[in-house]
Amino acid sequence: MPKECRRKSSKDFGFSVTGINEASRLERRVAAKSSQICDELIETAAQIAPSSGPPIVMDAPRVPQVTITPEGGGCSREMQQEDWDRAVDGTLRRKLSNSSISSTGSSAVESEDDLLSDNESKSKGIVTLEHLVDPGESKPPWWKLKTFVHWPFSVSQRKRINWVQLAGHKGNFKAADEGTILKKFSENEMQCFEKLRNDALLPFVPGYHGVVEKDGESFLHMTDLLANFDLPNVMDCKMGVRTYLEEELVRARERPKPREDLYNKMVEVDSEGPTPHEHSQRGVTKPRYMQWRESMSSTNTLGFRIEGIKKSDGTCRTDFKKTRSKRDVIQVFKDFVGGNVNIVKSYLNKLTEIQQALKTSEFFKRHEVIGSSLLFIHDHTGNAQVWIIDFGKTTALPEGQTLSHDIPWQEGNREDGYLWGLENLIHTLESVSSAAGAETSSSVTKENSQNTETHSQ
Ligand SMILES: O=P(O)(O)O[C@H]1[C@H](O)[C@@H](OP(=O)(O)O)[C@H](OP(=O)(O)O)[C@@H](OP(=O)(O)O)[C@H]1O
Ligand SMILES: Nc1ncnc2c1ncn2[C@@H]1O[C@H](COP(=O)(O)OP(=O)(O)O)[C@@H](O)[C@H]1O
């Protein structure tokens, strides 16, 4: 069920959004509409709070900030008061175990005590992005552009926007100027974006606009892929047969650090998942957890898995940990596209283009691509696109080494199964297309036969 959070001010719902993401505004409307109590509180808040000026912290009542109706169990993770406080003062940080390399790129070694519970940190749908430019601030004195001389941010009255984040860690993204977002800096990801500038994959990755810094914190400035869609439907598919780096495996073997948060996540899905030993220590290591996730989902069997879906009606789901069989995956895709065969065909065309580009890409040849996703986005206008996102754990191979991306992984060969997964994904969508086509033609046949009956009466 959606968790509750305290509203800080009427601005959270009431600010005017003319820029960064029109769709988000509409979504927020749709979502807010679904809760009578929420609407009443918005009105109350609007009366209490001034239309401009600093946000007012309302201690009570606790209400859902965004109302999402998840199918099959709670999926929406919403900002809590503590999250706001941490995010606003800039202290919301990812904590890493020493068996973890963050997809934000850090390989920092920290003690187990430093770990955040994943329930607290993992994004599961609609999140609220903080805008880093304070309203009324006319100049951005704190911005220091590291790489590109281009001032990207204008003053905005928007402080926070609701946005779709189907995977990754909450707090990793911030709002930026129209059509763009900021992602927490990762050296690894930054290097990938730099190398992708001259690569065949460039048309399929989010536009990259350099690195920006505020208060000692750096961000990657990139295009918001949702920006050109009207009430977008979004799906995140994590690619590959392996979702952890080989070095994470080595580290966990050398110095195993059982993590309680991962143990809890495992038990939540399958109480018999942990071994008796893991039960007794109430902890599992990161690679063990990741391997278990891969075997429960379609990662091992198909080379990709569905991480999350958000539909235009505001519903969102991230409960796909046990979506494993091709049949189940097809069903999820069918639901995602609402049986629209044209959308499926557009997606298939896009995937084929990506497949071609991957085969010629120098970048792809020379990188182990781990934890990267394909982001599917379509809307009611028929616009359907696929992008390659998340290069936090995409790692350059030693000079001279290349990968084929379609042979089985064995420790040491660094293969990721990306192309094999993509091939399976294409086949899966082809099945969706023929199933949808068959349904359409059978309903047309039915209609025709009804017409014939009507005529003959
Ligand atoms: O999906 P669930 O089951 O919640 O597991 C998560 C995802 O695999 C995260 O990957 P992603 O960010 O791609 O969603 C991963 O972060 P990394 O990418 O840093 O490996 C988390 O590792 P920890 O952050 O170490 O818990 C792991 O706990
Ligand atoms: N450029 C983008 N435009 C729109 N949505 C994005 C973009 N990048 C990421 N997202 C959203 O954020 C989610 C997490 O992104 P990701 O890069 O995988 O983060 P992390 O590195 O924290 O795992 C994706 O599932 C998607 O919903």
Strand order of the largest sheet: 11-10-9-13-14
How much helicity do the residues have?
Answer: 25-40%
CATH topology of the domain at 171-240 and 302-442: D-amino Acid Aminotransferase, Chain A, domain 1
In terms of per-residue confidence, which ranges show pLDDT below 50 for 5 or more consecutive residues? 1-120, 135-158
**Strand percentage:** 15-25%
Ions, cofactors and other ligands present here are: inositol-(1,3,4,5)-tetrakisphosphate, adenosine-5'-diphosphate
How many helical stretches?
A: 15
Main sheet? 5 strands, antiparallel
Provide the CATH top-level class of the domain at 171-240 and 302-442. Alpha Beta
Distance between the termini: 53 Å
Overall pLDDT, averaged? Answer: 74
Radius of gyration from CA coordinates: 23 Å
Number of strands: 15
GO molecular function: ATP binding; inositol hexakisphosphate kinase activity; inositol-1,4,5-trisphosphate 3-kinase activity
Pfam family, one: IPK
Protein name: Kinase
Keywords: ATP-binding, Kinase, Nucleotide-binding, Transferase
